[in-house]
């Protein structure tokens, strides 16, 4: 059967014909092409290469979305590889639901030098201080940033760099399985496309309980088949886990994002002076990555606020992280430059301390920035104009949902801002409500109660049967409904094939050469130096660059 005909069998009949749907379908087609390759290799018994091509297929689904949130075919393929390649072991999972969980193995694909995932991991380890925490990294490049490494070693744990040992995905998965048996529970913080957990933990009876942190809740990810418990950070994420990822309701728990308590180092007026703002200026402030402020239907984030700022000449809107969008310039000029975008910077403290009102990013929320602002007693305003099924784009996080002033329409959103600008007492009371709420839900000691519930659930439930999460003939179907369509509207498209360069070194030599040739033909690799680098096994490159 032709590939296009086969893809049509997986595509729903949602009535949406516009310029985005063909590009969205192309993502599914790329995913399908590499999945077919993985399935062919798997059928031929070439399991090492099949695992790598399964990871490539999953990675293709992140540009920005494949039209589904879980892949039954990839999960079946990878867990089958795990069962067929598992080492013999006498380990048997403990059955006592009351057993203490004292030693935790955290598994990450990589930990970056900056970012919310790394921050949450560090806060987690330092807050959960009565336990020993260790870290296993499947694809780390470079060292682990010193404060995070120290958090693990100070707890009595260790750090394992799997990709610095000889071999590739299957060898690393077997090593991960061996390491895990010294622990009472495993927590997955892995990236969406990482296949190692499915290979390592395919047999639930031969491993400790596995909890998956759903940190990429708006993305497709691998892991449903091996996760005894899924830790969701908000209720919209939990809804998707149940309805679109195959996670049974009892296996879902809610644990809010943990953040460091915000500590004010100067008054709002002094912070404004530090930013060369008059203390009488009323600062509306927002901070997020630029992609979260994408213009929608020709209306920019700046455009929405022009008439409001014309009405309030002492108010300004500053947005940190967006750069200098060309389509913001007319709006800024219309209010005499009082809409001011800034590039990303690690020095954000003065901005948050100066803010009178925190304005959430749009069309995709930035919850951690909202939590930081709330911790300083700043009132919060957010907006979401979509369908209920698309609430993954909205603020619905435990500690900031209720205190946030939500706009369900543009008029309602602007009305909230107008009220806050005009009413200092409302700003004070709304800010204090937000501060109290974020401290309760998102910081210790109360945050630890949520975590204990997750550990207890993982210990009490029987291990997940990886072969029963999805039906034997269940396949993923491309959807163009909500929230799928919104992924393309919010995040746009990344047509780059550069991500493929992460994979040749994980393949057996013959397959490695074939993929490198493909990348040269496609112009992804354009120099002989890079070609030679891609022909080296990944473990050797990591040892040469990073040591053991």
Regions with little confidence, pLDDT below 50 for 5+ residues: 1-17
What gap, in angstroms, lies between the N and C termini?
Answer: 48 Å
Based on helices, strands and strand pairing, what is the structural class?
alpha/beta
Strand ordering within the main sheet: 3-2-1-4-5-6-7
Arithmetic mean of pLDDT: 93
Number of H/I helices: 23
Strand percentage, roughly?
Answer: 5-15%
* Helix content bin: 40-55%
From the alpha-carbon coordinates, what is the Rg to the nearest angstrom?
A: 24 Å
Largest sheet: 7 strands, parallel
Q: What is the general shape?
A: globular
Q: What's the count of strands?
A: 13
Write the layout of secondary structure elements.
Elements: H1 3-8, H2 21-43, H3 47-60, H4 72-85, E1 103-108, H5 116-127, E2 132-137, H6 146-154, E3 159-161, H7 169-180, E4 185-188, H8 196-200, E5 210-213, E6 229-232, H9 235-244, E7 252-254, H10 268-274, E8 282-287, H11 301-304, H12 306-311, E9 315-320, H13 329-334, E10 339-342, H14 349-354, E11 357-359, H15 367-375, E12 380-383, H16 398-401, E13 405-407, H17 410-422, H18 424-442, H19 446-460, H20 484-491, H21 509-521, H22 528-535, H23 538-546
Parallel strand pairs: 1-2, 1-4, 2-3, 4-5, 5-6, 6-7, 8-9, 8-11, 9-10, 11-12, 12-13
Helix pairs in contact: 2-3, 2-4, 3-4, 5-6, 15-18
């Amino acid at each position: 059967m032709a590939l296009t005909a086969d893809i049509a069998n997986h595509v729903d009949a949602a009535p949406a014909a516009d310029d985005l749907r063909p590009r969205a379908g192309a993502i599914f087609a790329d995913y399908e092409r590499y999945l077919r390759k993985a399935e062919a290799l798997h059928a031929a018994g070439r399991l090492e290469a099949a695992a790598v091509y399964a990871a490539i297929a999953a990675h293709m689904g992140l540009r920005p979305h494949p039209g589904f949130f879980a892949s039954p075919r990839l999960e079946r393929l990878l867990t089958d590889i795990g069962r067929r390649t598992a080492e013999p072991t006498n380990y048997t999972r403990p059955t006592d639901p009351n057993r203490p969980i004292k030693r935790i193995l955290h598994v990450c694909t990589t930990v970056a030098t900056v970012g919310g995932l790394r921050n949450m991991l560090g806060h987690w380890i330092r807050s959960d201080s009565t336990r020993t925490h260790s870290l296993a990294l499947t694809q780390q490049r470079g060292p682990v940033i010193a404060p995070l490494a120290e958090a693990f070693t100070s707890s009595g744990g260790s750090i394992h760099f799997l990709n610095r040992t000889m071999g590739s995905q299957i060898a690393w998965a077997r090593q991960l399985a061996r390491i895990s048996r010294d622990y009472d529970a495993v927590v997955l913080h892995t990236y969406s496309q990482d296949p190692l957990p499915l290979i390592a933990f395919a047999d639930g009876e031969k491993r400790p309980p596995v909890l998956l942190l759903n940190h990429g809740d708006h993305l497709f990810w691998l892991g449903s088949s091996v996760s005894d418990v899924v830790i969701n950070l908000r209720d919209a994420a939990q809804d998707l886990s149940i309805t679109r990822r195959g996670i049974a309701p009892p296996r879902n728990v809610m644990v809010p994002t943990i953040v460091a308590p915000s500590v004010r180092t100067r008054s709002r007026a002094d912070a404004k002076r530090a930013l060369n703002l008059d203390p009488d200026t009323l600062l509306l402030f927002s901070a997020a990555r630029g992609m979260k402020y994408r213009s929608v239907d020709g209306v920019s984030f700046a455009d929405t606020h022009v008439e409001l700022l014309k009405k309030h000449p002492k108010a300004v809107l500053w947005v940190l992280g967006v750069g200098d969008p060309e389509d913001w310039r007319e709006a800024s000029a219309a209010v005499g430059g009082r809409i001011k975008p800034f590039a990303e910077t690690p020095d954000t403290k003065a901005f948050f301390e100066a803010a009178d009102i925190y304005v959430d990013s749009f069309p995709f929320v930035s919850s951690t920035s909202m939590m930081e602002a709330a911790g300083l007693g700043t009132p919060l305003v957010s907006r979401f104009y979509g369908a209920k099924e698309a609430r993954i784009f909205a603020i619905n996080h435990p500690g900031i949902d209720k205190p946030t002033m939500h706009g369900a329409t543009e008029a309602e959103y602007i009305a909230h801002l107008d009220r806050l600008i005009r009413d200092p007492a409302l700003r004070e009371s709304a800010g204090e409500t937000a501060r109290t709420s974020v401290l309760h839900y998102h910081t210790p000691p109360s945050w630890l109660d949520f975590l204990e519930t997750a550990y207890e659930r993982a210990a009490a439930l029987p291990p997940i049967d990886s072969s029963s999460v999805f039906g034997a003939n269940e396949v993923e179907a491309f959807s163009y409904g909500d929230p799928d369509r919104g992924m393309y509207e919010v995040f746009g498209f990344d047509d780059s094939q550069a991500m493929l360069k992460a994979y040749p070194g994980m393949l057996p030599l013959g397959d490695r050469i074939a993929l490198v040739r493909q990348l040269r033909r496609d112009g992804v690799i354009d120099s002989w130096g890079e070609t030679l680098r891609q022909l080296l096994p990944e473990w050797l490159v990591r040892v040469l660059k990073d040591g053991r």
